[in-house]
Every structure is written in C-alpha cells, then in structure tokens.
Hints:
The protein is of the alpha+beta class. The chain folds into 2 domains: about 5-165, Jelly Rolls, CATH 2.60.120; about 175-290, Arc Repressor Mutant, subunit A, CATH 1.10.10. It is about 45% helix and about 20% strand. The protein contains 12 helices and 11 strands. It has helices at about 95-105, 110-120, 130-140, 145-160, 180-195, 200-210, 215-225, 230-245, 250-255, 265-275, 280-290, 290-295; strands at about 5-10, 20-25, 35, 40-45, 50, 55-60, 65, 75, 85-95, 125, 165. It has a 6-stranded antiparallel β-sheet with strand order 2-9-4-7-10-11, covered by helices on one side. α2 crosses α4 (about 145-160) and α6 packs across α7 (about 215-225). The radius of gyration is 20 Å and the shape is globular. It starts with 6 loop residues before the first strand and ends with a helix. Keywords: DNA-binding, Transcription, Transcription regulation. One of its GO terms (molecular function) is sequence-specific DNA binding. This is AraC-like DNA-binding protein. InterPro entries: AraC-bd (IPR003313), Homeodomain-like_sf (IPR009057), HTH_AraC (IPR018060), HTH_AraC-typ_CS (IPR018062), RmlC-like_jellyroll (IPR014710), RmlC_Cupin_sf (IPR011051).
Amino acid sequence: MSIIQPELEVLESSPDSLRYLEHGWPDPLCRWHSHKECELHLIVATNGRSYVGDYIGDFAPGDLFLIGPHLPHNWITDEVWTDPVAQRDMVIQFDHEKIEGLVKSFPEFEPSQNLIKRSQCGIKFSGYPLDDAMARMASLRDGTGPHRILEFFDFLTVLAEHPDTETMSIQKIDHAKRSKQQIKICDVVDHIVQNFSDEMSVESAAKMAGMTEATFRRNFQATTGHRFVEFVNGVRIGQACGMLYATDEQVAAICYQVGFQNLANFNRHFLKMKGMTPSAYRDKARKDLIPTKETA
C-alpha cells in the first residue's frame, strides 16, 4: 500500500458523535489509510515509526496524535516486538463538522475548533501524562450522553493548551484531491519504501514515473513535501533507528544495510534528522525504549 495512495476507509454510520476503538499489534486495522473523520490516537505500548502525510518519525508509549480529515496515517511497531501485543492503541474518531456547528452556537469552544484546523497536517502531543490520557480515553469509551461530549471537549481544551506540540506533515495530503501527477508518484514511493537499501537516482525514479527529471522533481516535492534525496534518506534513517536498538549490529553495518554508501554521510544525516549520533540514539533507546517493552 503506497504511503501516498492510502486505503480510503468509510466508517459505519452511528448515532453516537464519538466512535471509540482500540486494538493491539499486529492488527488488520493497522494499515495505511485515511477517512473523513478526525482521529485522536493514543499509543499505550510498543515503539516504532509514525507515518502521517509526508511525516516519518518515531513513536513511543504516551505519544498522542490528532489526525485531521482525509490525512493518511499509520503506525508500524518495530520488529523487536516479536510477541503479539493485546492493546497498543486507544482511538477516538469524530466528525469535525459537528464541532464547527457547535462553535457557531457556543464560541467558548473555539479553541477546540482551532486545534482541529491545525490537525489538517497532523499534531503530535509529546510529554502528555500517559496515565491521564488513558483515563480520559477510557472515560470516553465508557461514557454516554451529554456528559461524554463535555468530557471530550474538556480533553480537547486541555490539548489546545499543551505546550509541547509538533506539526507533522509539511503538506496537507488530502487523499480525496490527488492529481494524476501525484498518482504517478505513488509507484516510486512504493519502490522506495519496499527497496530502501537499493541504489536510487532521480534519473531512474523519473523514468519509473514516466516524467522528465525536472517534472519529476517538481511533482515529487509537491506530493511528498520533500526533495527526492531527502525523502529517501528519511526512509533509510527510519529503518536504521529500528535496527539500532533492536539488534547488536555495528553502526557501520547498519549504515550499509539501509542503503548509505558512506559512514560519514550516514552519521551526518542521522544527526540532522534525530539530533544525536547513531550510537547516542542506540544508548538512549536501550535505556528508554526496551524497558517499556518489558513493562507493557
């Protein structure tokens, strides 16, 4: 499944304004997809890669995401988690248009609407207390009637004031508005994700898409929000992160396994994207991430 051409999910109609679901890993619900509803998504177990629009990053227990309408997304747990996980995600899905209608009558709820507007590119909330987030999600799961809606708006209000947020996708990748050029880029993106260790050039990628190099460069950046080389390096660095803490492979070996041909170049790109060296990342991951698996 392309990370540009996601599966379009049509949710079942329901009389409830909020739809709650939870699932473990692996699970059929964990796939690259989009839907017209907004989604509040809490990770409660495992570590791995987040794919939201053109964003590729790490996730860990306690990370909370607000995904806007038609924004493709998926969370893939690292292979170090070899045993099935009973519960990895707690999710609330809702129709943003209903909130817009409520704000017209009750302007006090405007911070929630502004938060949802920001979610068109995806928002990651870091440092939010996991226990509090789980308790709020559980209350929304079990609640009924108007009290449930009020609790939901209270949660959105708290999140709107949360100091540590990150806008995720550079582009608003709206699945419902893809052009013919974007669709042509899909096969190239699939090839990169599935064959990240192979040698790749703009020339060969343009030929795969049936475009001139200049046209390909322009359309690739317009579709993914990244230049071609930046995108390839981002996928490779993401793969390297999982290998660093999940294996005992030497950094140099991982460098070549994910497709870099030069260790110094790999270290430079890793430092730029992760803010630390590969060795420092491994040490931090072994300290912070692996214990989470044992206690999950």
